[in-house]
Amino acid sequence: MRQPWNFCGLLILTLFACARRTGAQTDVASGQNAPRYNLNVAVDEVSLTFHAADAQGLPINDLKLDELRIFDDGKPPHRILAFQSLQDFPIRAGILLDTSDSMEGYLPRNRAICIEYAQQLLRQQTDQAFVMDFNFLSEIAQPWTGNPAALTAGIRKFTPYGGSRIGGTAIFNAVYQACLNQFGRIDHAASGNFILLFSDGEDNASHADLKQAVDMCQRANTAIYAFRVESQYSSSPGPKTLEELASQTGGRVFFDDDSNVGIYNDLRTIEADLRNQYRLVYKPEVLRHDGAFHRIELLGPERAGNIIVRSGYYAPAH
């Protein structure tokens, strides 16, 4: 029996969205190693990536196109143009750390998790990351680099903004700016891209809203993986905000239980999601240039117990 999943994803809808093949990539339909090439995606084509895992959470890297059925707003695509397995993909990471008053007590722990990722999982030869802190404003503490020592120094610059005359937390602004100004300047089809977000999810100072932040993540092909702490307010919308950011961009939310083993396993889960992906390019049956949201549904084989993707895509407005 086949099982349905909601497709979470941007789909890169630009006139020329270049997808550089890197790492151990295989033409899954033929099962043969394929030569490197650049994939140009036209404006009326949809390019999406997704991660598949079995019931134990282990990556599945041998899915065949004939095992999948895709629906775009309930309709099958007019034509499948490409299907690739992207294995051992390079990673581009944005480390975003909330330094507002409500997070002051969690800052040392969050710093330690960031440093663990930079020193243990980032691959200097292929991966890069940047470091940003935010409260009511956002600031880049370390620009893009593959150097763990530089990233660690940037992470340790973070200090809480307690006692400031200007209060507030602008999560949506920080996410929007990270995707626009950082991920928007790279070839975001050539890597697994994600934001490692540390916050309680309480936004009270953003000019951008949730939809705008999500839309910019989708355009930059960037997922949000959040580490959540308990809010001091029982009625806080923060947990729901983090869940929405993660689910609509194809990421996950983790709860920090103060277990070093648990945190390392969470970081390894992110690693598996991003390094082992599939890319599928198709032409929809109908794609109007109206800026509307299109929901994607996938029917996959029973052995694929979990598929991590985004919820859909926004059509071009022109």
What are the SSEs and their pairings?
Layout: E1 3-7, E2 19-20, E3 24-27, E4 32-33, E5 38-39, E6 46-53, E7 69-72, E8 79-87, E9 91-98, H1 107-121, E10 128-134, E11 138-145, H2 148-156, H3 171-182, E12 192-199, H4 210-219, E13 222-228, H5 238-249, E14 252-255, H6 260-275, E15 276-283, E16 293-300, E17 306-308, E18 312-314
Parallel strand pairs: 9-10, 9-12, 12-13, 13-14
Antiparallel strand pairs: 1-16, 2-5, 3-4, 3-8, 6-15, 6-17, 7-16, 8-15, 10-11, 16-18
Q: Give the integer mean of the pLDDT values.
A: 82
Beta content comes to 25-35%
Q: How many domains make up the 3D coordinates? A: 2
Radius of gyration (CA) equals: 19 Å
Number of helices: 6
Salient structural properties:
disordered N terminus, alpha+beta, 318 residues, Rossmann fold, single chain
Description:
The radius of gyration is 19 Å and the shape is globular. It is 23% helix and 31% strand. Mean pLDDT is 82; it is low at 1-41. It has six helices and 18 strands. The protein is of the alpha+beta class.
Q: What would a concise description of this structure say?
A:
Helix content is 23%, strand content 31%. With 318 residues, it is an alpha+beta fold.
